[in-house]
Design a protein that fits this description.
The complex is a heterodimer.
Chain A (H helix, E strand, L loop, with lengths): L4 E10 L2 E11 L4 E5 L6 H8 L7 E5 L8 E4 L13 H6 L3 H4 L7 H13 L15 H15 L3 E5 L7 H16 L3 E5 L3 H7 L2 E6 L1 E7 H4 L2 H10 L20
Parallel strand pairs in A: 3-7, 3-8, 5-6, 6-7
Antiparallel strand pairs in A: 1-2, 1-4, 8-9
Helix pairs in contact in A: 4-5
Chain B lengths: L2 H9 L1 H26 L3 H10 L1 H11 L3 H25 L4 H23 L2 H9 L7 H30 L1 H7 L2 H28 L2 H11 L5 H26 L3 H19 L5 H5 L8
Helix pairs in contact in B: 1-2, 1-12, 2-8, 2-10, 2-11, 2-12, 3-6, 3-10, 4-5, 4-6, 5-6, 5-10, 7-10, 8-9, 8-10, 10-13, 11-12, 11-13, 12-13
């Protein structure tokens, strides 16, 4: 089973307004792709579409046989009820959901796997703490531990390094590199161009429509970035139906 | 009130049945209440308890004060309102709380109109606030059956329900289990309400759910312990409520809920998990 996904003239949006407009292209198995672009460029919308949370307005995503359960999706501001009485250990254990289901028991090996994931993200000692007592950075570390346990072929991270300190960001980035080396497909929305240049071989610059997609050094040029900033305008409530909709561009 | 009043729930025949009823109810209602509270749906339980009234009323019109029929009627009305308001939320722009409010207000008005048009105000009071003296073996079996069913269902949906509470998006990516668990949960909110209505009446049935759950939240930050404390406090308030009811001659429903309320306020003051004493006199801060 491969983790290659193909966008076929994909348009995603809300209430008929496109937020991602006519996207074509392929993310190869094992790719480490940064998705960059100004606020409102459609990065989160694209990721929601990939995770299956948003139906395309037109076009589609071809998962090449990849089961939805092999997708790990980490939203930008995870909608987590921090007051819920659950420990860090139990929360991370939710990552085993698709293997354990409703009744599956947790064996000693599973306990080790959970402990390992927690220590990998540097949260050893926090196992019994209620999740409400974690700081923002610790919360993000915990969410990464859950992603580890999900053991997904395709990992989609929406601005995973926002509002966390550089030490945490570096630790988590190392984890992303490790997933890359394990041939998992990783997509991450990012704002830090330095980080993208250092760690991500491939970049998609999105400004509702794709501005550039390819090797990072070819994409992150001053000219491309200037164009991306221009293209991000507000929704036009009086916009006419898109003429392109019935004439898909060639892939 | 004398010491003998504390023994009444064990000696008097009708009271003994009432005691069994509230103890059994505690096992089903309290865990449901914990989930309602954690999902911030406490008032939704209240609305649903109003919604079962017209079903009870129609059954009352058709068969008189027949508890089995009235329970079935309440069950049908409650599930209907739950499904209709859920449907209304999906097909229109109305939010779930607003559409539920619409349905339960109409239901309550309809129910009261139906009962008073053919019955006495005494019967209305009995339906609204319950009468433990009237609990017979049939009602007890019904309560036991519903509670057993509720506990089995909760055991099955426990994991997805917790995930749906703490991180709904995670489960939506993984499949449909979350929505399914939510639906089953709603159905069993209605089942619990309907069985609690037998003892406490339609209006206060939800008291056996929410108050013990709120109490438990002040005693622990661990899910299984929260549920355990909720069940225990529901049992204790049920017993004390019956004692109060027999001593003061008050209706059982309000007495039980008053006792649950008293336990809640005590817990709010003294509870170790976020209680007032802990909050305002936390002791010296720690080293690390």
């Amino acid at each position: 089973m491969s983790a290659r996904i193909t966008f076929r003239d994909l348009t995603l949006g809300y209430d008929r307004h496109p937020a991602v407009h006519h996207l074509n292209g392929m993310v190869e198995e094992g790719a480490l792709l940064a998705v960059v672009g100004p606020n409102g460029a459609g990065k989160s919308t694209l990721f929601r579409g990939i995770a299956g949370l948003l139906k395309p307005l037109s076009g589609g995503i071809d998962y090449a046989g990849l089961d939805r359960r092999h997708i790990a999706y980490l939203p930008q501001s995870a909608d987590i009820d921090r007051d819920f009485p659950i420990s860090v250990f139990d929360f991370v254990a939710l990552g085993l959901w698709r293997r354990k289901g409703v009744f599956g028991g947790f064996k000693a090996a599973d306990h080790h796997a959970i402990e390992d994931a927690i220590s990998t993200v540097g949260l050893s000692g926090f196992e019994a703490r209620p999740i409400g007592t974690l700081s923002g950075g610790q919360m993000q570390r915990m969410l990464f531990a859950r992603v580890i346990l999900q053991n997904a072929r395709l990992i989609v991270l929406d601005e995973p390094f926002n509002a966390i300190d550089s030490k945490t960001a570096a630790d988590l980035m190392a984890l992303v590199r490790e997933w890359h080396s394990e041939q998992r497909t990783v997509l991450a929305a990012l704002h830090d161009f330095e980080q993208v240049r250092t760690h991500f071989p491939e970049t998609l610059l999105l400004a509702r429509t794709p501005v550039a997609w390819g090797a990072t050094r070819d994409v992150l040029t001053a000219e491309h970035l200037a164009r991306a900033l221009q293209m991000c305008e507000a929704f036009d409530d009086a916009a006419a139906p898109c003429a392109d909709a019935d004439t898909p561009q060639a892939a | 009130m004398t010491f003998s009043h504390f023994l009444t729930p064990f000696t008097d025949d009708a009271m003994r049945r009432a005691l069994v009823a509230v103890v059994v109810l505690s096992f089903g209602s309290a865990p449901i209440g914990v989930f309602l509270m954690l999902r911030r749906m406490s008032l939704m339980g209240d609305a649903m308890s109003h919604a079962i009234l017209p079903g009870v009323a129609v059954a009352f019109l058709l068969s008189g004060m027949n508890r089995i029929m009235m329970t079935i009627g309440g069950l049908i009305a409650g599930l209907l309102v739950a499904v209709l308001s859920g449907l209304m939320t999906r097909v229109t722009d109305m939010k779930e709380d607003a559409s539920l409010a619409v349905f339960y207000l109409v239901s309550l008005a309809l129910g009261v109109t139906l009962v008073t048009s053919h019955g006495s105000s005494h019967e209305l009071i009995e339906i609204l606030f319950g009468d433990v003296q009237k609990i017979d073996a049939g009602a007890l079996y019904l309560i036991a059956f519903n509670t057993t069913l509720t506990l089995c269902a909760l055991a099955v949906i426990y994991r997805p329900l917790i995930m749906e509470c703490v991180d709904p998006l995670f489960l939506r990516v993984a499949g449909r289990a979350g929505a399914l668990a939510h639906l089953v949960f709603l159905a069993f909110v209605v089942v619990s309400l309907v069985s609690a209505y037998n003892a406490l009446g339609t209006l206060l049935a939800v008291g056996m759910m929410i108050l013990p759950a709120g109490t438990a939240r002040f005693w622990s930050r661990d899910m299984s312990r929260v549920i355990l404390v909720a069940i225990l406090s529901a049992i204790v308030s049920g017993y004390l409520g019956l004692v109060l009811s027999s001593a003061a001659g008050t209706p059982a429903g309000p007495s039980v809920v008053l006792m649950a309320g008293a336990i809640y306020f005590l817990s709010m003051v003294f509870g170790p998990a976020g209680g007032l004493v802990r909050r305002f006199a936390p002791g010296r801060h720690l080293e690390a």
